[in-house]
Design a protein that fits this description.
The protein has 158 residues and is α+β, with helices and mostly antiparallel strands. The protein has two domains: 49 residues, no CATH class; 87 residues, Nucleic acid-binding proteins (OB fold (Dihydrolipoamide Acetyltransferase, E2P)). The chain is built from three helices and seven strands; from the N terminus they run H-E-E-H-E-E-E-H-E-E. The strands form two sheets. The protein has a five-stranded mixed beta barrel with strand order 3-4-5-7-6. The chain has a two-stranded antiparallel ribbon with strand order 1-2.
Length: 158
């Protein structure tokens, strides 16, 4: 189990309490029998170093790109919308104040199938427990387009 990063991170989190001032030892017992104990002097260096920095152990990757998206679900009150980029559906925060104001003032509206060209920021955070959390933010709506329509091959009969 010690080779599993998620389990190891959880165990480190428990042991980290021993690194705090005023706590000298942590004992795990069952029915009055001590199963295991760890003292401050037994802590691995990584836990002591982590505790001294008081910073969470995580890494963040951020990417900003342009994309075409369609609106699956709009949440006008809380700003969390659901979009599709053609390959997958995802939740995103709509953080474009200009577009939001146009929506509020009814200067902008959309219909099923409309396409938004947006600047989207994706932030992936690798947590200390090994989990990856992805958050999307629509930073700017660059263009609002109707879906392309197929033209008729022949002109209508008159």
């Amino acid at each position: 189990m010690y080779m599993n990063d998620a389990i190891r991170a959880d165990l480190d989190e428990v042991a980290r309490s021993v690194a705090k001032d005023g706590i000298d030892e942590l004992e795990v017992s069952k029915n009055g029998n001590i199963l295991d104990a760890i003292a401050k002097e037994d802590l691995p260096a990584r836990i002591i170093a982590d505790e001294s920095t008081d910073l969470p152990i995580e890494r963040v990757l951020t990417n900003i790109r342009e994309a075409f998206v369609t609106v699956v679900t709009a949440n006008f009150e809380q700003g969390k919308w659901r979009f599709s980029d053609g390959a997958s559906k995802f939740n995103a925060t709509l953080a474009d104040p200009v577009f939001q104001q146009k929506l509020d003032e009814r200067l902008e509206g959309f219909y099923k199938g409309d396409i938004l060209r947006v600047k989207i920021k994706t932030a992936q955070t690798e947590k200390a427990n090994g989990k990856i959390v992805t958050e999307h933010t629509i930073e700017e709506v660059l263009d609002h387009q109707e879906p392309l329509r197929q033209r008729t091959l022949l002109p209508p009969n008159s």
